[in-house]
UniProtKB/TrEMBL annotation:
Identification of the protein by name: Thiol:disulfide interchange protein
GO molecular function: isomerase activity
Domain annotation Disulphide bond isomerase DsbC/G N-terminal: ranges: 157-220
Source organism: Thioploca ingrica
Region forming the signal peptide: 1-20
Keyword flag Ubl conjugation: no
Alphabetically ordered keywords of this record: Disulfide bond, Isomerase, Periplasm, Redox-active center, Signal
Function description: Required for disulfide bond formation in some periplasmic proteins. Acts by transferring its disulfide bond to other proteins and is reduced in the process.
InterPro entries, A to Z: DiS-bond_Isoase_DsbC/G, DiS-bond_isomerase_DsbC/G_N, DiS-bond_isomerase_DsbC/G_N_sf, Thiol:disulfide_interchange, Thioredoxin-like_fold, Thioredoxin-like_sf
Name of a matching Pfam family: DsbC_N
Ranges for domain Thioredoxin-like fold: 245-368
Intracellular or extracellular location(s): Periplasm
Keyword Signal in record: yes
Family from the record: Belongs to the thioredoxin family. DsbC subfamily.
Length: 383
């Protein structure tokens, strides 16, 4: 009889377990939601521990709870009726299922907690590599509008500097690049030469820019500024100077050649210029170049004891004594070429204006007077 009661109790327990299985599934499905996102980003072992919603996990849990419940339910069945045993067993089974769920949850929680923390760290760390990626993008986008530092005060497009480096065979550190008055053109100063380059580096413009409203030659004004700087660096002691006995009103710097006919004609009028208050300062410019016969003659003139007399004799085709010394002939000749002197005589005024060719004394004095009063636009010389 006892055996029949035990068998009946076991049948009741099996029925109660089968009826309680959907409840266990619901309980497992309602487990903490944090485990589901943790599985999406966790390492591969995590799904076996943290996914309680799969049928395999539920069946395993039910079988485990059945194994644990069976021995615990047997003593209770022996002390009560079959009906009471069924009710008690059902409650025990439910409790066991919940306990097994609770056991499963803590077991998954540590594993899930670590991936969750890891996921947060990864999500926090993800923006950090994004910043270096954006930084190179910014630096790589610069070449489209890259600007390069030059001896000028502003930066210029890379296209301009690259174009100049292809065509200029001089030290680029001595090249000055600035914005011109004409939009889209950059002014390039190479020694005393001024050219213009388009901002895209495609076009080179050689010539002067004039203001159509005022008639002002903007390019020549820039050249004049450069010449003034060169003049300020000169030492008058290295020149051959003919100064007025009285007040000096005007000063002209004359690049001269002792074998130049018009230079000789100009020299004959120096006394008249001195009377008009004009100081004449001669600079050597042997047109035949360094090492030529004229060059050697001019070295002898600049090395003579009386340089004024020596240059007067040389221009008059009188023989002068040969002499050598530490002289400025080379330096003044190179200066003349830098300033744009191509022939003699060439007069350089204190404002940097270059007046080429011979000008009679009376016209030159009148010209200097007008320039002194106007002090603006270049005055025309009366011929």
């Amino acid at each position: 009889m006892r055996n029949y009661m035990i068998i009946g109790a076991l049948l009741a327990i099996s029925s109660s377990i089968l009826s309680a299985e959907p409840s266990a599934t619901v309980a497992n499905t309602a487990s903490p939601p944090a485990e589901t996102p943790a599985m999406a980003t966790d390492t591969p072992p995590a799904p076996d521990k943290s996914n309680p919603t799969t049928p395999e996990t539920t069946s395993a849990t039910t079988e485990e709870s059945t194994a644990k419940t069976t021995p615990a339910a047997t003593p209770e069945t022996e002390k009560s009726t079959a009906k009471t045993t069924t009710t008690t067993t059902t409650e025990t089974t439910t409790a066991t299922t919940e306990e097994s769920t609770a056991k499963t949850t803590p077991a998954a929680t540590p594993d899930a907690a670590q991936p969750a923390t890891t996921t947060d760290e990864k999500s926090t760390a993800q923006p950090e590599p994004a910043q270096p990626e954006s930084t190179p993008t910014t630096s790589e986008s610069k070449p489209a509008t890259t600007t390069t530092a030059t001896p000028s005060s502003k930066l210029v497009p890379e296209a301009v500097t690259q174009a100049l480096k292809r065509i200029i065979k001089v030290d680029f550190d001595k090249v000055s690049i600035t914005e011109s008055a004409l939009k889209g053109l950059y002014e390039v100063l190479i020694g005393s030469e001024i050219v213009y380059v388009s901002d895209d580096g495609h076009y080179l413009v050689v010539g002067d820019i004039r203001d159509m409203k005022t008639g002002q030659n903007l390019t020549d004004d820039k050249r004049a500024q450069l010449r003034v700087k060169e003049l300020e660096a000169l030492d008058e002691k290295e020149m051959i100077v003919f100064a007025p006995e009285k007040e000096t009103k005007y000063t002209v710097n004359v690049f001269t050649d002792v074998d130049c006919p018009y230079c000789a004609k100009f020299h004959t009028e120096v006394p008249e210029l001195n009377k008009g208050g004009v100081k004449v300062r001669y600079l050597a410019f042997p047109r035949a170049g360094i090492g030529s016969k004229t060059y050697n003659t001019m070295v002898s003139v600049w090395c003579a004891e009386n340089r004024q007399q020596a240059i007067t004799d040389a221009k008059a085709k009188r023989e002068i004594k040969s002499a050598t010394c530490n002289n400025p002939v080379d330096k003044e000749y190179e200066l003349g070429k830098r300033l744009g002197v191509s022939g003699t005589p060439a007069m350089l005024l204190p404002n940097g204006e270059l007046v080429p060719g011979y000008v009679p004394a009376k016209q030159l004095i009148a010209f200097l007077e007008r320039k002194s009063k106007a002090k603006s636009q270049p005055a025309a010389i009366d011929k």
